[in-house]
Design a protein that fits this description.
Shape: globular
Number of helices: 11
Order of helices and strands: HHHHHHHHHHH
Radius of gyration: 17 Å
Largest sheet: none
Structural class: mainly alpha
Strand content: under 5%
């Protein structure tokens, strides 16, 4: 059983570690995404290439790689493993995105992949994230601020949906990790130098 769990963790991590922002930006002729804008390997930075369609594609794929592992896990292993163990294994897709082995463990911030992961656990949980993100983004015009607030809200969303404490702890850990990855954005928010969203 332990070998099987290890295998599933590795697969989940490897799916999450596919750096779509890096690959698609490179093959589309825009160069190394790590040398563009903020250098972040994510959809928001891909947008700085001026190719909205490319950024949307990266966003979709980053969400999908968070959704795919947890969906497969629940479909095939629902009777074999507990929900906590399935969610624990699926969470490695987010760690893969943030720390991809292919890019020397320097990846994106993990928000899109986290949304996909949440959608795989429970559509309502993913919807809570998206609704709060849209609300904060519309009112304050900061993508990073919207992400941070939504990340803080998610563990409470888990409590509202009556998840057990072990699952809430996973959500708290992931939210804190992704917020830490926004350290540079937080500094810019404090200094009022963060870029605003243009609707």
């Amino acid at each position: 059983m332990a070998i099987n769990i290890f295998f599933l963790v590795v697969i989940s991590y490897l799916i999450g570690s596919i750096p779509f922002a890096y690959i698609l930006t490179l093959i589309s002729g825009h160069g190394d995404i790590r040398k563009i804008g903020s250098g972040n390997v994510g959809a928001t930075n891909v947008l700085r290439t001026g190719k909205k369609s490319l950024a949307i594609l990266v966003l979709f794929l980053d969400v999908f790689k968070g959704l795919l592992p947890i969906t497969i896990l629940f479909f095939y292993y629902d009777l074999e493993f507990s929900n906590f163990l399935l969610i624990f294994i699926g969470s490695f897709s987010i760690l893969g995105h943030i720390f991809p082995i292919w890019l020397k463990f320097k990846g994106g911030k993990g928000v899109a992949t986290y949304i996909g992961f949440l959608m795989g656990i429970d559509f309502k949980l993913g919807l809570i994230f998206i609704l709060f993100w849209l609300l904060i983004a519309y009112v304050k015009r900061y993508s990073s601020l919207a992400s941070i607030f939504s990340l803080i809200i998610i563990p409470f969303g888990g409590l509202f949906l009556s998840y057990n404490n072990e699952i809430i702890y996973i959500l708290i850990f992931l939210s804190i990790l992704i917020i830490i990855k926004h350290a540079s954005n937080i500094k810019r928010l404090v200094n009022s130098s963060e870029n605003k969203i243009k609707f």
